[in-house]
DNA sequence: AGCACA
């Protein structure tokens, strides 16, 4: 055989290629900087940066071989070396003829996130919890879950890559808050990359996949209950037809729950159109109307079983109403139409709207929220809202209305990054109530 | 300062 030296001994005699190999680049050199460097010599059609163990190498590919030759020739005889950010960059022809795979799918932003849930109990995280977590950033279209060698993973589909990016930036590396998980679960950390998928295929609503854009998608046959109208949920609960109107019943109502309290609690998830309260079976119930089903679904999932006040008081039980549009005849202390300027301009029985209620304020969900370590102590504090009655059972009962469920800030949402469409009506609540921020008792502090 | 990775 003739000696075909595929591995040339002398790399400085590399034959020309339209791909150039760059080294000694500054840390985290960007594609833009590489293009700037090559642009005077021709058209840069592809780049790859952060190559090598030190991530200080890169490749740039020209449209034409002559352009690459021009760049090498120029710097071979130039008194000024090629530089990026003032750092000398060494150039040579690459031993390859084209850049392959410039970007991995994990680098290019898409509307679908690949979420790996880490932790011993990762696979016990329900799809509903994931939905709740990711819904903070926008409407979640679909979720599929699966187990691979990488562990328990989920694909979460948003409308667009901007929303997905916001969720990724906020949640990557963070842990799901303990209070969203069954008590015995260990920490569950989210690792998030972009998926190459753009539209997930969900055939059934099942314990491993959901399509929130299609509430009428058939439930997986394995989960169907014979009773007809209601099919069994994936976790054994009954599934009702979703509705934009929620029926909330209040259990253990030690303290008065006013219409305004309900408004504050439920408006965390979106604008409220109407509320009607009434007595039934010796307890108080309320119908809460949102403009759309999705908002109601998120509110129901977030609030079901939680207590408005710490200590297990005023526990909410929420189901979907068969109503779609409530008929509010008059605004009073039991019913209100927030969409009607005529009605709402009438003097309220309460004489104030809404009732300012002191309570924990907005810092609960900032940064530390998702910090993986040491949130065990959270459950031992008399925490603001979201405590399940069981979790809060040991806490001393607060005075009435001292601890309304926090509703000013949405879970998981770093302040300032909130997409306005995700929880409309939430920000105004902060100003309406005028709560002093300093009154906050962030249960997640430290 | 010396050639990448799904």
From TrEMBL:
InterPro entries: Nucleotide-bd_a/b_plait_sf, PTBP1-like_RRM2, PTBPH1/PTBPH2_RRM1, PTBPH1/PTBPH2_RRM2, PTBPH1/PTBPH2_RRM3, RBD_domain_sf, RRM_dom. Residues 381-394 have a biased composition (Low complexity). PANTHER family: MATRIN 3/NUCLEAR PROTEIN 220-RELATED. One of its GO terms (molecular function) is mRNA binding. It comes from Vitis rotundifolia. Residues 18-96 form the RRM domain. Residues 412-422 have a biased composition (Pro residues). Keywords: Acetylation, mRNA processing, Nucleus, Repeat, RNA-binding. Plays a role in pre-mRNA splicing. Binds to the polypyrimidine tract of introns. May promote the binding of U2 snRNP to pre-mRNA. The lineage of its organism: Eukaryota, Viridiplantae, Streptophyta, Embryophyta, Tracheophyta. This is RRM domain-containing protein. The keyword Nucleus applies. Residues 335-446 are annotated as: Disordered. GO terms for cellular component: nucleus; P-body. The keyword Phosphoprotein does not apply. CDD domains: RRM1_PTBPH1_PTBPH2, RRM2_PTBPH1_PTBPH2, RRM3_PTBPH1_PTBPH2. GO terms for biological process: mRNA processing; regulation of alternative mRNA splicing, via spliceosome; regulation of translation; seed germination. Residues 341-351 have a biased composition (Polar residues).
